[in-house]
Amino acid sequence: MIWSTLFQFPTGPLNQVVGWISGGRVAPIDWLGDPNWSMFSLVLLSAWQAYGFQMVVYLAGLQNIPEELYDAALIDGAGAFGRFWHVTMPGLRPTHVFVLLITTIQAFKLYTQVAVLTHGGPNGSTETVVHYMVNAGFAEQKVGYASAVSLVLFVIVVAIALTQRALMRRFDV
Q1: For the segment 40-87, what is each residue's pLDDT rounded down to a tens digit?
Q2: Domain containing 96: what range?
Q3: Contact 138, 150 (CB under 8 A)
Q4: Helix, strand or coil for residue 130?
Q5: CATH number of the domain bearing residue 139
Q6: Is 35 exposed, middle or buried (0-12, 13-18, 19+ CB in 10 A)?
Q7: Residue 122: is the preceding peptide bond cis (ω within 30°)?
Q8: Is residue 61 part of a domain?
Q9: Helix crossing, 35-63 with 93-108: angle to 10°?
């Protein structure tokens, strides 16, 4: 409900900020009613929602990088950027893969935000697989069809999980 207030057209807080930054030159944006902006709005909301989990995962990844690698890079004359680029980034490679794939799977099963804010609209621009499946199964009473959609979603998620497993093996994790 907070996000529906933030995205409110034309007087919501997000439109107020856009108007203030642009000096009033940008017209209010219909964040949830305009097909060009509605998916961006849901992506913004989902990114905000996932941010905390992803930061905890990255913190765990940073704690797994041995301090000796930073010491060795410092002895070799690496500056702060060199240590970041040649020690931290390679050390976080498995974490990047994990966060990317988990976020992708979460995007496939996005339902609540769509159901609460846009109901799949406008013009189907925010329709997700799970929202489509639930709508087909319950609203349209096509239970067999919804089951087939859920099976396809399951196969996609398993393929993503197997991809993650293969990538993790490649990075020796």
Answers
A1: 999 999 999 999 999 999 999 999 999 999 999 999 999 999 999 999
A2: 32-170
A3: no
A4: helix
A5: 1.10.3720.10
A6: middle
A7: yes
A8: yes
A9: 140
